[in-house]
Design goal:
Elements lengths: L9 E5 L3 H13 L3 E5 L2 H10 L4 E5 L7 H10 L8 E6 L6 H6 L4 E5 L3 H57 L5 H31 L7 E5 H15 L6 E4 L4 E5 H17 L8 E9 L2 E8 L31 H11 L4 E5 L5 E5 L3
Parallel strand pairs: 1-2, 1-3, 3-4, 4-5, 7-9
Antiparallel strand pairs: 6-8, 9-10, 10-12, 11-12
Helix pairs in contact: 2-3, 5-6, 6-9, 7-8, 8-9
Bound molecules: adenosine-5'-triphosphate and magnesium ion.
The site of magnesium ion has 5 residues, from helix 8.
Length: 361
């Protein structure tokens, strides 16, 4: 898709008046654009499907499929929706500018055409497209970088942790109290650092499109059960009630969905830690004929009005001193749910617990 850098741009002109086509064709080929031309909407849709151009100049008034309709169809298809469309309108046509933008056009050019104007408008759109593509590549590079770095850091940290452990085991007793405290701080800090690195790694993993999803049908309830059991072991079986609806099957990428559930349940567990009778629930309900899954807790909750950026990385609603965390969990969950074509939303109140709902396509 990066062919834009190699040449000036591949433009498709669609107009049912051959003279118009010829005029634009000559103008643009002289400017060294690669130009294709077709005479009606149907041909246009075919040409785009065979080879998507970088830009389309689209006449509005055409028999059968008019320009608005062609544009609407292009925008409805994921494969063609990003191709910019500039509308061509004659002065005496009843041209509806608002409608042109509403159906997804990015600009319009009025007939009779003025050479300079056509070139400037075309070049504007192509520049925008170049920048968008560059941004996309940069983002992908950055994500791959995040993945790599957090992965490598994790390995090094594991080594530091092992050495600290050995140091303590073998020589701890021979050290004085001050030195022992140092080692203890070392252990605490590297454990915290490990958590942050783990979170970052998961976030970049959930985003990495180069890691293909593997779709399976599996028992979501058992997955929840296993995660919850780990909490139980960690907290030494402290009185916490878990209600898990059994045998809920879903289709999705198990590895990613596990990360999402771990984060949601980890939050539910964390934010009920200081509650009298903590209760965490997992289940399913139907909304508009769609399966919706939820993780519900009766913890400290939060003020929904302050939660607009809840799914943005590093955004937290509680102070670090009260509840530890980096603020990456929910950003990761959202990315994973979206990669499955689903949605995530919540219901919460201060001291009234929180419920996170999600769908999977
Ligand atoms: N079940 C919940 N109850 C109350 N507040 C929640 C709940 N889940 C999330 N939040 C709020 O949303 C914030 C963001 O959650 P997120 O999981 O992204 O980060 P975190 O848990 O603070 O850190 P991390 O998950 O990276 O360790 C939390 O800090 C908290 O303020
Ligand atoms: Mg979290």
């Amino acid at each position: 898709m990066n062919k834009l850098n190699e040449h000036r741009g591949d433009i498709l002109i669609v107009d049912d008046v051959p003279e118009n086509l010829q005029l634009l064709f000559t103008m643009l080929t002289e400017q060294e654009y690669e130009v294709r031309r077709v005479l009606n909407g149907k041909q246009a849709l075919n040409a785009v499907r065979v080879e998507p151009p970088d830009l389309i100049l689209l006449d509005i008034k055409m028999p059968e499929l008019d320009g608005y309709e062609v544009c609407r169809q292009l925008k409805a298809d994921e494969k063609t929706q990003d191709i910019p469309v500039i509308f061509l309108s004659a002065l005496n046509d009843t041209f509806d500018k608002v409608k042109a933008f509403e159906v997804g056009g990015v600009d319009y050019i009025s007939k009779p055409f003025q050479l300079q104007e056509v070139i400037i408008r075309v070049e504007n759109q192509l520049n925008l497209l170049r920048m968008q593509r560059e941004l996309k590549t940069k983002n992908e590079e950055l994500e791959a970088f995040g993945y790599r770095v957090s992965h490598d850091l994790r390995n090094h940290l594991t080594i530091i942790n092992s050495i600290t452990y050995l140091l303590n085991q073998k020589y701890g007793k021979t050290l004085n109290e001050v030195a022992q405290n140092y080692i203890e701080s070392l252990e605490e800090e590297s454990e915290r650092m490990g958590e942050i690195i783990e979170d970052l790694w998961r976030l970049s993993e959930s985003k990495s499109n180069y890691l293909d999803m593997v779709l399976d049908s599996f028992n979501l309830s058992s997955m929840v059960e296993k995660i919850v059991n780990k909490f139980k072991i960690k907290s030494g079986n402290k009185q916490k009630e878990f209600i898990i609806e059994p045998d809920i099957y879903v289709t999705g990428d198990q590895r990613l969905i596990k990360i999402a559930l771990e984060n949601l349940l980890d939050n539910a567990n964390k934010f009920t830690a200081k509650i009298e009778q903590p209760r965490i629930e997992f289940g399913r309900l139907q909304k508009n004929d769609q399966n919706v899954y939820f993780v519900k807790d009766n913890g400290v909750g939060f003020e929904p009005k302050k939660a607009e950026n809840l799914f943005t990385p590093f955004h937290r609603l509680h102070r670090k001193e009260t509840f530890t965390g980096t603020g990456i969990g929910l950003a990761t969950v959202k990315k994973i749910i979206e990669r499955h074509g689903g949605n995530i939303w919540y219901d919460a109140g201060v001291n009234q617990g929180a419920t996170f709902y999600f769908s999977l396509a």
